[in-house]
Amino acid sequence: MAVQFKFRSSMNFDSVDIDGRTSISIRDLKSKIISHKNLNICQDTDLVFSDAITGQGQLSSALHLYQ
């Protein structure tokens, strides 16, 4: 399974594979996105998550996203 994401400045969605899992923590997802986009050189990089449908922002790092 893959999780789609988009940066505000981007026109298109991108995706990261979560290795066949049915859920992923926000912390692990952040790590995968940072690696996928080669952002690990930026020490102060942080990602803010929001629901694409509701616009609800900043989900807890302990939250798990389910399929």
Describe this structure as you would to a colleague.
With 67 residues, this protein is of the alpha+beta class. The protein has one domain. 16% of the residues lie in helices and 21% in strands. The chain has 1 helix and 4 strands. A two-stranded antiparallel ribbon has the order 1-2. It has a two-stranded antiparallel sheet with strand order 3-4. The protein is globular, with a radius of gyration of 12 Å. The model has no long low-confidence stretch (mean pLDDT 79).
Radius of gyration (CA) equals 12 Å
Q: How many H/I helices?
A: 1
Order of helices and strands: EEEHE
Distance between the termini: 8 Å
Largest beta sheet: strand ordering: 1-2
GO molecular function: ligase activity; zinc ion binding
Pfam family, one: DWNN
Keywords: Ligase
Protein name: E3 ubiquitin ligase PARAQUAT TOLERANCE 3-like
Describe the secondary-structure layout.
Elements: E1 2-5, E2 14-17, E3 23-25, H1 26-36, E4 64-66
Key attributes of the depicted protein:
1 helix; E3 ubiquitin ligase PARAQUAT TOLERANCE 3-like; DWNN_domain; two-stranded antiparallel sheet; 67 residues; 4 strands; globular; alpha+beta; zinc ion binding; single chain
In short:
This is E3 ubiquitin ligase PARAQUAT TOLERANCE 3-like. The chain is of the alpha+beta class and about 70 residues long. It is about 15% helix and about 20% strand.
